[in-house]
Each structure stands twice: as C-alpha cells, then as structure tokens.
Amino acid sequence: MKIVGLDVGQKTIGVAISDDFGWTAQGLKTIRWDENNYQSAKQELKSIIDEHNIGEAIVGLPKNMNGTIGERGEASQRFARYLEKHFKIPTVLWDERLTTMAAERVLIEADVSRKKRKKVIDKMAAVMILQGYLDSKQ
C-alpha cells in the first residue's frame, strides 16, 4: 500500500507518492484543477489512487506562521474531507509551512530555470510534505 502526498492550491494540486515501504517520496505530477469545482480533479485523483494502490493521503495544511489556520488551511481541510468521503481513504493533514519556499530553494540550487520551476514547484512541495510525514513515522 502506498501513500499519496498532496500540495493543494487554488489552480493546481502537486502529487507525490511513496514507495511500497513508505520510506521515500517521489514526485508524480501536477494536476490542473478549479478549486471551486472538485469534479475537475476527481478522475485524475481516482486514476492515481487506483493505479498506485493508495491507502492513505497526506494533505498539506498551510498554517500561518503563528500556528493558526487561515483561509488556505480551511480549504485544505475541506479537500481532505472530500478525499475521505469520495475515495474512502484516510487522510492526514500535515503542516506544510515553508514547503513551497524550500522547494523553490532546492530547484534554484539545482539551477532549474524559472520557467521549468513554475511547472514542477507544486509537485516538489508535495514531495516535501510527504517525505516529512514519512520521516516522522520512522
């Protein structure tokens, strides 16, 4: 059983999956979607869950720096409830403060162009969310 990590934004969802042992996270893809229409991502999510035998989802929870949950955090909570209801998999909300900034820094250090960074930043943030979760379990 694998675990999926999701970095949920207004227009994109970064997706990462674990290996079978739950040791490492690998970036899979970025799904384009409309946050106001969950159906816009439903088929792609279903395909990923089915194809990779996903048994759990880790959803990034963007907290404010003081630990409170704002509008984006509430949107992630709604999305996690949607996953549980429609795909029948347990979800864990994982503090993702600064993951996008860290992902950007890694890509800059790897000398990835700005144009290419824009295409993979959400997927890389999903990897960092999922890897953080996996590391906490060991």
TrEMBL record:
Keywords: Cytoplasm, Hydrolase, Nuclease, Ribosome biogenesis. Its EC number is 3.1.-.-. InterPro entries: RNaseH-like_sf, YqgF, YqgF/RNaseH-like_dom, YqgF/RNaseH-like_dom_sf. It is found in: Cytoplasm. GO terms for cellular component: cytosol. SMART domains: YqgFc (SM00732). GO terms for molecular function: hydrolase activity, acting on ester bonds; nuclease activity. Could be a nuclease involved in processing of the 5'-end of pre-16S rRNA. This is Putative pre-16S rRNA nuclease. It comes from Aquibacillus halophilus.
